[in-house]
TrEMBL record:
Keywords tagged on the record: NAD
Residue ranges crossing the lipid bilayer per the database entry: none
Source organism of this protein record: Leptolyngbya boryana CZ1
Stored InterPro entries: Epimerase_deHydtase, NAD(P)-bd_dom_sf
Protein name per Swiss-Prot or TrEMBL: NAD-dependent epimerase
């Protein structure tokens, strides 16, 4: 079985590729290695993968129409997992064209490749951001998501619409995954948890938006990967999702921890793990941000028998351990987690 993983040098793509290789799949990874964040981290991830004989990689941008066309000529994939995208809500305010090129034009190029190939299943990353300022909680895939409040969210909603149309027109079995605030080892430096740890160990202030009155459904990377792997072989058929009122072989799932956490508690756990106090700068809500995310994962549990359950304490413990080792930061080696509490 051969899997195409787009964004293979990215945070989620790296972890998924590693898991698929361990499970015995052949993986072909592509990534444009953009400089949106530290490219050296992307190369370090690839270094961890390149020695596996079942892994191949090429530098390729989804927006490269001819390159994607040639990719599908050169390979026959059983599964495609699209994780390549221009990420970030705030970055979209100043760099809108990067999102249109990668998340819209690039995604259409991928769909065209699928249309002309005999793939078994296309899985693509969506985002909890599509829910916008939804006040109905928890967020369900049957909720209306017609009012995105950031360009990033609009492109992710567009992906869902484009994927559905191709699934309907060409019979491509397709599943979209709405990820909720993913964190963990080898994570993205632009994410809040990464910035918090970096600033705290460097005795620099951290920016706390909405004056700390935020809640996020933080989801540990291992739980995200488990969900993706289980969904990958759960191939949808026509009429499998009555909530979407669709006859296409198309499905949507939330993958979230189903447990919103207050931002100030999140910071407090990091402080305990580092045995240092954060210097907090409280700021108002930023454009495009939402005060709360909260995933309804009943469908995921029902269809694939899995729901994320890694505690925040355990997940952050693993991230802090990785961060300190990767960046050579002195840290406590005798930390442990008991009953979801940090022991030093």
């Amino acid at each position: 079985m051969k899997v195409l993983v787009t964004g293979a040098a990215g945070f989620i793509g790296f972890h998924l590729t590693k898991r698929l290789l361990n499970d015995g799949y052949q993986v072909h990874g592509i990534d444009n290695l953009s400089d949106y964040y530290d490219v050296n981290l992307k190369y370090a991830r690839l270094e961890k993968l390149k020695h596996d004989r079942d892994f191949s990689f090429q530098r390729l941008d989804l927006a490269n129409r001819d390159g994607i066309l040639q990719l599908f000529r050169d390979h026959q994939f059983n599964y495609i997992v699209n994780l390549a995208a221009q990420a970030g809500v705030r970055y979209s305010l100043t760099n809108p064209h990067a999102y249109i090129d990668s998340n819209i034009a690039g995604f259409v190029n991928l769909l065209e490749g699928c249309r002309n190939s005999n793939i078994q299943h296309l899985i693509f990353a969506s985002s909890s951001s599509v829910y916008g300022a939804n006040t109905k909680i928890p967020f369900s895939v049957g909720d209306s998501v017609d009012h995105p409040i950031s360009l990033y969210a609009a492109t992710k909603k567009s992906n869902e619409l484009l994927a559905h149309s191709y699934s309907h027109l060409y019979g491509i079995p397709t599943t979209g995954l709405r990820f909720f605030t993913v964190y963990g080892a080898w994570g993205r430096p632009d994410m809040a948890y990464f910035k918090f740890v970096k600033a705290i160990v460097e005795d620099k202030p951290i920016e706390v938006y909405n004056f700390g009155k935020m809640q996020r459904d933080f989801t540990f990377i291992d739980d995200i990967i488990e969900g993706v792997v289980r969904v990958m072989t759960k191939i949808p058929t026509a009429n499998t999702d009555p909530a979407l009122n669709s006859k296409a072989a198309y499905k949507l799932y939330n993958i979230g921890n189903n447990n919103p956490v207050e931002l100030l508690h999140f910071i407090e756990v990091i402080e305990q793990l580092l045995n240092r106090s954060a210097i907090k700068t409280f700021l108002p809500m930023q454009p495009g941000d939402v005060p709360l995310t909260y995933a309804d994962v009943d469908d995921l549990m029902q269809d694939v028998g899995f729901k994320p359950e890694t505690s925040l304490e355990e997940g952050l413990f693993q991230f802090v351990q990785w961060y300190c080792e990767y960046y050579g930061v002195p840290h406590q080696n005798n930390l442990s987690i008991v009953d979801n509490k940090v022991l030093i």
